[in-house]
Amino acid sequence: MDKSQLPFLSATELASLIKSREVSPVEATEAYLERIPQLDGKLNSYITVTADRAMADAHRAEQEIVSGKYRGPMHGVPIGIKDQVYTKGILTTGGSTILKDFVPDEDATVVSKLNDAGAVLLGKLNMSEFAMGDAFEHPYGRPRNPWDLSRNAGTSSSGSSAATAAFLCATSLGEDTGGSIRGPASFCGLVGIRPTWGRVSRHGVLGASWSMDQVGPISRTVSDCAMTLAAIAGHDPKDGHTWDVPVPDYLASLAGGVQGLKIGVITERVQSDTVDPQVRDLVVKAIAQLGELGAAVSEVDIPLIAQSAAISTAVTYADVSAAHREGIDQHLKEYDYNLQLRLLAGAILPAQAHQKAVRLRHMLRQHILDALEKVDVLVMPTSSIPASPLPEKAGVESKEAFLEMLGGRRSFTAPFNLASVPALSINCGFTSDNLPVGLQIAGKPFDESTVFRVAYAYEQATDWHTRRPPV
């Protein structure tokens, strides 16, 4: 195979060729390292490209595979990692100038797991400052959407989505507090899963909200996403919030189909007035496709779901302000202006309001768990809109804009991070402007397998995942 075509393979296709020794990890890594400088000047998806480290990883993987020491599907596969995640000896900025010189002396647990799996680290990916979303200033370059360079690649795992969609890594890691895996995946036409809270370790990950942060993959196909999650999932004694439960063989469970599965449609979110008509039409067609594949589709009501963004915002702002207490006191002006507003809002949030949000969160979570007792998965749009234009100035311009922030597209991802359940976004078509649209699939706690199974059945029945952005 022509080396220049290797980046266009899915991660699982590449893994198969590496395992059979038809492709060398060195060839694959060289192909990505040649492609990154050709395109990333337009996209700003990487903060740091670790070319020397990548080539060393690739040569080691090649030697191990040739000598019969194959470690599994991720062995020799080139990946990118959000710059929120500690990498030993490699700059880790969190997307902020405050950490412009920070080089961790240890790897995050997810990085250690990827190292053990034999993955090749291409570099660290751009992001919104400290993973708080909708930053205006991006000190390492504003990430751009490969489908339209004038549009948002998603927040806050914007570099992960841009690099993966533009074939600048085989698969990537993002992090999702209130939608920062699923939103970027939707905007860039990818598959991204926020696993069950506690499925993946956060040790060595710069945090925003201790009760909602979760690392997960952003990939080009469902099988790529499943393969990546399998490599990083599992209990970690260094993170007391991880659960000691078995990690299934996600790849093995993909092909079960949806015949007989019960799919609950959250109609209030599908038919909401806030949903772009083209988004609604594509999501409705995707749900109908699942019905044609044999799933039993029914409507489900989730009380409080329209208020989920406001609930999530109150919890997250209080958490992130507590995490950045010292920063607020000592160098507030060094933060992006939009983040300054969030930090200050969280710092003055009344305890009564925070406690109300926490109680409402528990109520909403129970509503979602009750619904999942009756169906296998819940479905609705990932976002109410396709990728938005890049902002022209910082701040919130009006009361209406602030209310949109509390109840707009965030109210489509927020229900499931509040409920701590797995939720995945998969591309379900394109608008007339050739912008991707995401279908969101959520499942029971620790039942990522069923979520993947539904997504895979839909993916195999459609061809959206085969399209390439024009960049």
Keywords:
alpha/beta, Amidase signature (AS) enzymes, eleven-stranded mixed sheet, 41% helix
Describe the structure.
The longest helix has 24 residues, at 351-374. This protein is of the alpha/beta class and 471 residues long. Strand 10 and strand 11 form a beta hairpin. The protein is built from 16 helices and eleven strands. It has helices spanning 11-19, 25-43, 51-66, 109-117, 158-165, 182-188, 222-232, 267-270, 277-292, 308-323, 325-331, 337-348, 351-374, 399-407, 410-419, 448-461; strands at residues 46-49, 78-82, 120-125, 171-175, 191-194, 215-219, 262-266, 296-300, 377-381, 423-430, 436-443. It has a single domain (3-466), classed as Amidase signature (AS) domain (Amidase signature (AS) enzymes), CATH 3.90.1300.10. Helix 10 packs across helix 13.
